[in-house]
Design a protein that fits this description.
By secondary structure, the chain is an all-alpha fold. The protein has a domain at 15-24 and 36-56. It is 63% helix and 0% strand. α1 (14-29) packs across α2 (37-56). The longest helix is centred in the last third of the chain and has 20 residues, at 37-56.
Length: 57
Amino acid sequence: MRKDINKPKGKTSAYAFFVQTCREEHRKKNPEQSVNFAEFSKKCSERWKVRGRAENK
């Protein structure tokens, strides 16, 4: 089954934007370093949780 290239994309969540920003920051600081997705994802998730707690206070 082929994918419809004209199909609208779903809404991007705030967390997805956050992870994208984290990835861009990492690339600027370490342009030659490859990224282990599992480790990177865990670090982003921890940062997201800390940020959420700080904003709720």
